[in-house]
Amino acid sequence: MSEVERKPDGSDEHRVTPLELFFDLAFVFAFTQVTSLVLDDPTWGGVLEGMLVLAALWWAWTGYAWLTSTLDVDEGGVRLAMLAAVAAMFAVALAVPGAFGDDALLFGVGYFAVRALHLVLYAIVSRDDPDLRGALLRIAPTELLGASLLVAAAFLEDNARVALWVVALVVDYFGPAFRNPRGWRIAPEHFAERHGLIILIALGESLVAIGVGAGLELVPRVLAAAGLGIVVVSALWWLYFDVAAIFQRTRLAQASGVEQIRLALDAFSYLHLPMVGGIVLFAFGLETALHDVDEPLETVPAVALCGGASLYLFGHVASLFRATGRLFRRRTIGALVLIALIPVAATIPALAALALVSLVPSLVVAYEAIRHREDRMVVRHPELAE
């Protein structure tokens, strides 16, 4: 099989390759940089800029997730093009802290290169597939326009730059939503696994935030706060990987044709972004809390600490509802409770606020694990139901 030739069935599965994991490593650094951007400007404006950058990074990543799910690109010339995309993505990550400042042009040009390479790779992959080539031609204009607007934004100032960023992302995100999905194809198991891995990478950023926030003064209060941070991250991991990822992967594999493409776009490409955004916001609030565990958090970090975990849960609820048609009520309640905790978190010591935040997802995990233990075992081990 040639380096760009696909198997007879376009949906054939293939393993996540080391090249894909290597590509994702650039996003480990990029997510860390987004947190640094917000930490350097812990205001509402800083949070807005951080979330805009994250949205751009996410859409670049998910485009490559679709590409590598179409077929294994870890061969020959295609491999070299993917490595070039890694280099461009790393340059983008380096520019993240200054994406709205001195490094705006570097970010924009690097981002354009990442998106252009994505289209080139897809063009190579689709050269013997008229349907896929047609789908690519329908999406290319909005992809290039969105990336071009980010380059243009580098020449503007302040609010005008932010406004053009918003326009660029709207163009890029809504392009696929209003185009005919026919022609696209994915390997559902592979596609779901890639999204699980990027959630894992984002959670790893929270662990980095714990280490950085704790610093060198490992007194009991700081160690307690770090421990509570680990509890939250562990609960967030459990909520995704215990059964939620299985539900979504199974439903995606059961779907076919246009239904499968729409489900992949909605439940994964669109609705996994709130989960990643929630993790990054939580990491910012967590690192801030660890800097001074005895003092109340400022308003913005308090919102990030509670609201980030809440956004993650809401992302779960929305993605699972889109995939299964079921509303996961306990997760919804947990997300609402976390929002209600925001004013409390801004008035009590950061250590106490972190304790309250850790309690909510932990209780949701405990309820699901105990109340639905038999159903959970069947989902995780379907052979037991036979």
Proportion of residues in β-strands: under 5%
Distance between the termini: 38 Å
Structural shape: globular
β-strand number: 0
Q: Give me the CATH fold name of the largest domain.
A: I/LWEQ domain
Count of helix runs: 15
Coarse structural class: mainly alpha
The CATH class label of the largest domain is Mainly Alpha
Mean pLDDT: 88
The value of Rg in angstroms is 21 Å
- Return the string of H and E elements: HHHHHHHHHHHHHHH
The main sheet comes to: none
At CATH's second level, what is the architecture of the largest domain? Up-down Bundle
- Structural domain count: 2
Helix percent reads over 70%
- The parts where pLDDT drops under 50 for at least 5 residues are 1-11
Task: Describe this entry's structure for a reader.
The chain is mainly alpha-helical and 386 residues long. The protein has two domains: 9-185, no CATH class; 188-386, I/LWEQ domain (Up-down Bundle). Helix content is 78%, strand content 0%. The protein contains 15 helices and no strands. It has helices spanning 18-40, 44-70, 76-95, 104-125, 130-153, 158-177, 188-214, 220-254, 257-270, 273-291, 299-324, 329-340, 342-345, 350-371, 373-380. The model is unreliable at 1-11 (pLDDT under 50).
